[in-house]
Amino acid sequence: MRSAAAPHDQRFLDLLTVEASYIDDTFGKLPGTVPTVHILNYLQAQHLDTDFYDRHFTPGAYLPTHAHHQDTWH
């Protein structure tokens, strides 16, 4: 999925710079409203309704691991 994402263009980088500057100017640090030590990496796991995606989206809307989840784990 990551390889399908559009690369960051200059407009995005400019927006990100303005946003980060605003947060730093407003709160004096990044992230602005939570202690830095509380930012943890996480992984979101979910059961997809693959029939819904098959009906409303084109092939490739979800990973093969989602397609085979039921057979693999249940």
The beta-strand count equals 0
Instruction: Give the mean pLDDT.
Output: 84
Morphology call: elongated
Euclidean distance between termini CA atoms: 24 Å
Major β-sheet annotation: none
Percentage of helical residues?
40-55%
The helix/strand class is mainly alpha
Which SSEs are present, and which pair or pack?
Layout: H1 10-27, H2 50-56, H3 64-67, H4 69-73
Task: Explain this structure.
With 74 residues, the chain is mostly helical. The mean pLDDT is 84. 46% of the residues lie in helices and 0% in strands. It has helices spanning 10-27, 50-56, 64-67, 69-73. It folds into 2 domains: 1-36, no CATH class; 43-74, no CATH class.
List keywords for this structure.
74 residues, mainly alpha, 4 helices, elongated
Q: What would a concise description of this structure say?
A:
With 74 residues, the protein is mostly helical. It contains 4 helices and no strands. The chain is 46% helix and 0% strand.
